[in-house]
Amino acid sequence: MRSITRLIWYFLICLSANATAQSIDWSALEYRFVGPYRGGRSTAVTGVEGRPNVFYFGATGGGLWKSEDYGASWTNVSDGYFASPSIGAVRVAPSDPNIVYVGTGSDGLRSNVISGKGVYKSVDGGKTWQHVGLERTGHIGALEIHPANHNVVFVAAIGQAFAPNAERGVYRTRDGGRTWEKVLFLSDTTGFADLELLPSNPDIVFAAAWRAERKPWTIISGGKECGIYKSVDGGDSWTRLGQGLPKGIMGKIDLAVCRADSRVVYALVEAPGDEGGLYRSDDQGQTWRMVSDYKPLLHRPFYFCNVEVDPTDPDHVFVMALRLYESRDGGKTWQTIPTPHGDDHDLWINPDDPRIMIEANDGGANVTLDGGKTWSSQFNQPTAELYQVEVDEQYPYWLYAGQQDNYSAIAVPSLPPRSHQLGAGALVMDVGGCETGPAVPRPDNPDIVYANCKGRFSVYDKRTGQEQHYDVGARYMYGHNPRDLKYRFQRVSPIHISPHDPDVVYHTSQYVHRTTDGGKTWETISPDLTAFEPDKQVVSG
Fold first, then answer.
1. pLDDT tens-digit profile of 263-295?
2. Are 191 and 210 in contact (CB under 8 A)?
3. Which of 151, 371, 458, 492, CA to CA, is 20 to 30 A from 289?
4. What's the structural domain count of the chain?
């Protein structure tokens, strides 16, 4: 009798579970945005001539965005059209503001860069898009449109980041992207990071060759093929320029031409020793001279390296690097222009009013109407790059993550009103560590967060804002090759809390480390779990 009773109960339980499972319509579940409503890394910007209120910016992982109110608000225009969220270049045709071309694949070749899927074109100001080719070019460093004929477009293709490929080079279309021809090719390891059309004569084209290849442990930036190439017949033939430029290996190069004086060309050149710096030509590239060897201009050139010149003044120059630098005397002296966020990548200057600019950085895109004295907000563009996401056990639950190059790790609520992230009720809470995270809340107390910053462990109390550091090894690892360090922590180093005891936490370098007292003391509980090849344990870039 007991066996029959147990069998009946088992049948009823299974029947109930099956009915519950069938009653859930999983297809009805939808993603909802909960934050943070602030910008992430952006490397491509442009405005629209004759329409000073309209701007576009491209994020490295968040697609293409458009503003029609001087950057006060932004709308994504690429979702549903682009096969890659990584934007390398964007330009609007000077002859028709409805014609927009976008090259995908960011030119800032970090180890976590996203590859592109070619070129997209819009004929209605970004409302709809068509893929127009070059799908295998990987990363596009620049795109320029003929000022009088929007069907003529040039593309500088860096190539795939992690392997040689034959699709590197300079491409040209004469039919609006229906067909493309490769007009300049050097090798399957050397592509092109930038190109410029001379405004007064667009048959004169300058292109900057760059050998760039990422390895899992470092980056190769530079080679003998790198340099500046010039065409005077619209790309049919090319000549390498050299008089006054570095003679040996060069790395990444960025170019700028001046609309007000077609003789003036600037080149920001990565090169060994004291040859790297800002060069200027006053004869359309025939001869060059170094005008600045100011070291901050070439900080991490594979990641930054961008120069722009005021379209109305050939001596007014801007360089994007760790900061936004400005020179008003042709590069002799420099000052910084404060921006809402550092790590600056791109700049577009309105040719009708050079006080109007849009600038791209690791915090998004910002617009200025007064030459950089004030900027629009970056808290209106949800393009954050998040390394890892955790949730806590409270209700409503909060989400925790590290956002690339944005201060500490953060937490956001999961339900309105604060989860909307706009207006007075918006909330983004710092929770210790730094941009990389992770930030892992204790399951028994969500006010206590185990945080991390590139291997540096800490405990953060959300109630007091106090952060206590309990590092496993050396606190500062920069300036050292990983092979020389006792503990080799990854940039994003995992943290795992024991499901049995929240005081027991695991943290990993090449070893597994364990604490049983919430981080105060640590023990190493594993051997070296990595292959440890010393030649690959170098500064990664």
1. 999 999 999 999 999 999 999 999 999 999 999
2. yes
3. 371
4. 2
Shared domain for 275 and 395, answered yes or no, is no
| Residue 6 three-state SS | helix
Position 282, amino acid: D
The answer as to whether 260 is a domain residue is yes
C-alpha distance across the termini of the chain, in Å? 73
CA 188 to chain centre: 24
CA torsion sign for 241, 244, 250, 252 is negative
The CATH number of the domain holding residue 297 is 2.40.10
Task: Dump pLDDT digits (tens) for 161-173.
Answer: 999 999 999 999 9
Supply the pTM of this predicted model.
Answer: 0.91
DSSP string, 391-438: E-SSSS-EEEEEETTSSS-EEEESSTTGGG-SSTT---EE-SS-TTB-
Measured from the Cβ of residue 2, the count of other Cβ atoms closer than 10 Å reads 6
Distance CA 245, CA 279 (A): 8
425 and 287 co-located in one domain: no
Provide the token pair at 311: 């379209």
CATH number at residue 449: 2.130.10.10
- What's the pLDDT band for 115 if we cut at 50, 70, 90? very high
